[in-house]
Design a protein that fits this description.
This protein is mainly alpha-helical. It is 60% helix and 4% strand. A two-stranded antiparallel ribbon has the order 1-2. Strand 1 and strand 2 form a beta hairpin. It starts with a helix and ends with a helix. The relative contact order is 0.09. The model has no long low-confidence stretch (mean pLDDT 75).
Length: 141
């Protein structure tokens, strides 16, 4: 959306005096477009793809988190300038920055995804083994 409305006459705070975008806005627009493209590709492939899970696994394990990371960085680069007043209750009637709040959920999702990749999803609970897809694995017992 930002690339559509990126006009010097409309968004004056995004542009320098010479008509070029500021560096953070340029990076933000690129991250937004590429992140949106990656997430759209994963979504379309999920909706209309008919290949096996093994062929689609790289798309879900690599491209999807990368698209979420790029979309999150897009929002960070757009609004990090206002984060220094995050806990200053005299600005915005005590409300925190919208860009800060909107990046917390995707960052938590990426952190959990990274944690599950690092530590694995199979855990032992006494003698029982808790499986990620227990219904699928129970059929093989």
């Amino acid at each position: 959306l930002g690339s559509i409305v990126a006009d010097a006459a409309y968004k004056t705070k995004w542009f320098q005096e010479n008509g070029r975008l500021y560096g953070n806005n340029e990076i933000s627009l690129v991250l937004g477009v590429v992140g949106f493209t990656l997430i759209t590709a994963v979504t379309v492939r999920s909706l209309f793809g008919s290949d096996s899970w093994m062929k689609l696994k790289p798309m879900y394990t690599i491209i999807s988190p990368l698209g979420i990371l790029m979309a999150t960085l897009h929002v960070v680069f757009m609004g990090y300038k206002g984060w220094n007043k995050l806990f200053d209750y005299s600005t915005k009637k005590g409300q925190p920055s919208i860009t800060f709040m909107s990046t917390m959920l995707p960052l938590v999702v990426l952190l959990v995804n990274f944690g599950l990749d690092t530590f694995g999803t199979k855990k032992r609970a006494g003698r029982q083994k808790i499986w990620k897809h227990s219904a699928t694995n129970a059929a093989h017992l």
